[in-house]
Amino acid sequence: QIPVPVLRISATQHPVKAGLSDAFMILNPAPDVPESRRRTIYEYHRVELDTSKISSRAAVEFTPLPTCLQHQSCETCESSELTFNCSWCHVLQR
């Protein structure tokens, strides 16, 4: 159960994010404390949900789009009609 409607939650006090994202993390030495590391997360793709549709007892289903990894040859990769620009790696055969 959601105790407070999501649209009533203040973004300044607690930002609400719903969806999926791809990211990678890099650990860098913190300049002020040499023994510690600062974690930096770089997000490179995000699929956001409409927060007005979040409610108690609701579910969301994500259906993945086709990717380049499904192709087994250079010809099928480069002739595919995916929504992004594919290229074939001869070293990896992908």
Automatic annotation (TrEMBL):
This protein's record includes keyword Ligase: no
Sorted UniProt keywords: Membrane, Signal, Transmembrane, Transmembrane helix
The answer on whether this UniProt entry bears the keyword Metal-binding reads no
GO cellular component annotations of the record: membrane
Report the subcellular localization. Answer: Membrane
What is the residue range of the signal peptide feature?
none
Q: Which InterPro entries match?
A: PLXDC
Q: How does it sit in the membrane?
A: Single-pass type I membrane protein
The entry sums up its family as follows: Belongs to the plexin family.
Recorded protein name is PLDX1 protein
Originating species: Crypturellus undulatus
